[in-house]
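Protein modeling request. Please complete all fields; requests missing the sequence field cannot be processed.
Requester role: graduate student
Desired output: 3D structure, token encoding
Chains: 1
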Amino acid sequence: MFSYPDLNILFLLQTDEMRKIILIAVFLFLTAVTITAFYFSRIKLPGQNTANIINQSPQNAALVFEFKNDPEFYALFKDSPLLTSFIGQKKANELQYLHDHLLKQAEIRSALSNRSIFISLHPEINSNNTEMLLTTNSNGIADLQESLETIVRQTNAAIESNKIGNKTIQIIYFPALKEAFYFTINAEVMAGSFSKTLLLNFLDERVENKFNNLTQLSDQQNKNSIADLYVNYQQFPVLFKMLFKNQQDDFFRFLTGFQANSALSLNYKSDALLFNGYTQTDTAAATYLNLFLKQQPVKNSIKDIYPINTASAISFAYNQTAGFLKELDNWQIKRHDDLKAKALFKLIREETGVSIQTAFRKQLGKEFAVITTAENEKVAVVKVKNGSELEPFLRNISVDPDSNQMRLKYHDLFYYLLGEPFLHFKQPYFVLIDNYLLLSESETGIKNYLGNYHQQHFISEDQQYYEFDQLLAEQSNISFFMHLPNSFQNFKNRLRPEIAKSFGQKNPGWKDYFAVALQFTASQNNFYTNLYLQQSKPKTVKRDTTVF
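Delivered output (548 residues):
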């Protein structure tokens, strides 16, 4: 069924009533552009100024989706259930009808050929709402008023013009919607929104109000792409506050403090969405992810021991341990944690005689990960060079050195040894096995992981995970992974009630997806970035690993 990938996140955020309004708004906007372009311009626009359009968006945009209005884009998503599940079958049928009876008409298709449409999402501070702004290049549009009056005559709506300073806003009132839709043109950009406040922000030409620091795709990459996604991580705290009723877990916490933005282009696969591009980060910010900017990508091997019940995981890898530890020390200084770390290491040395920082750094490997299971247990896995040499040092600083259930005596030790991923491992239990150090706040977390480990019950043995893993880059420095069926209940419990409804088991939605992954690979002081989302298959079976 035909659907619009730019609406995937949007429809997750809205109530049923608002979803319907937004669906109609998108097509009203396209209709306005269509009629205007058809009556006042027959020219084809070869190289639209993407940067100008995006830079005119208000600075509080969290996401901007750009798609090319051409047959290739629609053909790729025709009869695909991948995105239909986000908005439901009824809404997809409505989109199909409008597409068949409006956008497929030869004259309209010709008028809008190769025109880029931008949809940006703007979460509101201290609100549970997110507003949408639709923009496109206004080249060749001579008279917006006449175009809108054409729409009004066909829909029994009303239209009026408002003057805001030297700017004009067109307002359309649709009786069936009981909502006003606002249009305007400014700086060669046509914009529309249900929010008058957002449209006024669009007209505010002060530099500090504009989205002018966004990473841009190269002209060639933009030209060859059928759709692009621009991500402003600095707005994620507002977006996540709107989504979640409680504090987010580790999977989202790293992204809320990320001073960066991404420009990603879409690569289509029949059962998956794949985006790739670059992330530009504020290198001066005390952001943990920046610790890996100077590292070379590393083959991700720690993922091979994720347990079968993994809900989400974040892994970190570096090729130069000394370089990583130097960056970690600098990060602690920026966060004013360095003195606390030194005080703790000194206390441990005075009470036990163990120089734990020296001993641990000597044995530290080049990968570590934090795993959350479907049962909401957190387990950290740290690769070490020689576990048998490290174990006596850890045992000597544990609560009971002779116990089989070893637990560290000192709080926050691993936060000061490895940083932010270990923030919630206050006084963990630990065990060393096959040169892996396992940490968990509960005995059962360690016990359950070891049960899966000894029985080789790893998620990598699952056939669908194996197929998903083949899409991912083999090497990276930071990798976020979420197994959606395993994380479904944990994730739903954290969402606000009105958002959680979209995760209902009886409705199409996230339950129809298998996994999502986000990878960052250091490249010239930026991150090459891959984002993957794959649809679930009817049945998941264990992968055949027989060797003949």
